[in-house]
Write a structure and sequence with these properties.
Layout (H helix, E strand, L loop, with lengths): L16 H31 L30 H34 L4 H15 L3 H13 L9 E3 L2 E4 L2 E4 L1 E3 L4 H29 L5 H20 L5 E3 L2 E2 L4 E2 L2 E4 H27 L3 H9 L4 H31 L11 H12 L2 H30 L5
Helix pairs in contact: 2-3, 2-7, 2-10, 3-7, 4-7, 5-6, 7-9, 8-9, 9-11, 10-11
């Protein structure tokens, strides 16, 4: 009996090898094109007497930044000024995403409400602000809402909050010398509490005894923090309450008019899109789920919270990611009203140093870093909520 040799598949027809070869070839071609582009750019700059590099970041900036979250003065280098702009972009984007998500979810659910007035108000909110340019909304908030407010000497006080044409002053937490130690301890307590929760949960499953894992682990966390408070005799931070002194407002956290205009405009504009995403996600859940909750006697709010929305969130998350990325990139419009985020600071640095290409490269890298980080987080979050098929 003769044995027949199995013919090997030619390399150019192997379904496993061919895709890898094509991907490697694509990366090689794109890498070559990018390298040629960079080299031509550097050669062109050298011909006109400009050397590409980032050494200028150590030079003195010499310009002021109105609202800096970190220590900055005119004697600091350009690198420090750019860092201030990055922190400002991160600040307005972070709080904008949180506020837009909360408002968007509430408006989206309100639009589906059986209450006619509530549904119409939500619809008008979405139609008006979604179809109005974002830059126009920023201008209206800045020049027509905040700047006409009273001067700082006649600041309007609403409890511990103060409003004037300079912005708002709100109560805020202030740090002290033991804050960082507190933060490290709290992080350790959270990890310890998690392990206590898992242990109690496993014990409840194995022994069939109700150990109240959530409440018990919460008590452990609070007890550890209480002991730490007795040792340090102070909390991780103290609350600074604003006080109006007649000529100014001292204490608290000061939020300038440009920052509030940009934050509110980004929040309102993005929340309209999030509201429609939420509405579409909820309506995509099979109607049988709603009918089942009614048959079981669930109230509408309870059914939405426990049954409908947890299923809709699997549909909502991927589309929310796009809106978060748009909000981060739209924050570059802040320079129109004088809020100095990365683009505003970058333009000043370009005008003073003449390093246009380097600054543009830094700005692109910053937005790319923020966008990729947001995408990675949202993709991880989305993966955790997806149904696991067996």
């Amino acid at each position: 009996m003769t044995s027949q040799k199995k013919k090997s598949t030619p390399l150019w027809r192997n379904k496993k090898v061919v895709p890898i070869i094509l991907q490697v070839a694509f990366v090689a071609v794109m890498g070559t094109l990018i390298w040629i582009l960079i080299q031509n750019t550097i050669i062109g700059l050298e011909r006109i007497g400009i050397n590409f590099g980032f050494g200028f970041l150590d030079s003195r900036a010499g310009f002021n930044i109105n609202e800096a979250m970190i220590d900055y003065s005119t004697s600091d280098p350009y690198g420090r000024a750019i860092l201030v702009g990055i922190v400002s972009t991160l600040r307005v984007s972070f709080f904008g995403i949180i506020l837009a998500t909360i408002i968007g979810v509430l408006v989206g659910i309100a639009k589906m409400s059986d209450n006619w007035l509530l549904s119409k108000v939500a619809s008008i909110y979405i139609d008006v602000f979604r179809n109005t340019p974002l830059l126009l909304q920023i201008f209206i908030l800045n020049f027509a809402v905040f700047l006409p407010l009273p001067r700082i000497q006649e600041a309007v006080g609403v409890g511990p909050f103060f409003l004037s044409n300079r912005g708002a002053v709100i109560p805020w937490l202030s740090v002290h010398e033991n804050t960082w130690i507190w933060l490290l301890l709290i992080a350790g307590y959270l990890i310890a509490t998690f392990f206590v929760f898992k242990w109690l949960l496993n014990k409840e499953v194995e022994d069939g005894v109700n150990t109240h894992p959530f409440i018990s682990s919460l008590v452990v966390f609070l007890l550890l923090n209480g002991i730490t408070f007795l040792i340090f005799r102070q909390g991780p931070a103290y609350l600074s309450i604003p006080q109006h002194t007649g000529a100014a407002v001292s204490g608290g956290l000061s939020l300038t008019t440009p920052f509030l205009s940009v934050l509110f405009a980004l929040t309102i504009f993005t929340s309209t899109y999030i509201a429609e995403i939420v509405r579409g996600g909820v309506q995509a859940v099979p109607k049988g789920q709603t009918e089942a909750t009614k048959a079981l006697g669930f109230r509408s709010a309870t059914a939405m919270r426990l049954v409908i929305f947890p299923q809709a969130i699997r549909i909502i998350i991927p589309q929310m990611t796009s809106q978060y990325l748009n909000l981060i990139k739209n924050s570059s419009l802040a320079m129109a009203v004088g809020f100095q985020e990365i683009v505003g600071v970058g333009n000043t640095v370009m005008n003073q140093s003449g390093r246009t290409l380097e600054v543009i490269f830094i700005m692109i890298s910053v937005y790319l870093l923020f966008s990729l980080t947001t995408s990675l987080f949202m993709n991880y979050f989305n993966k955790k909520f997806q149904l696991v098929e067996r």
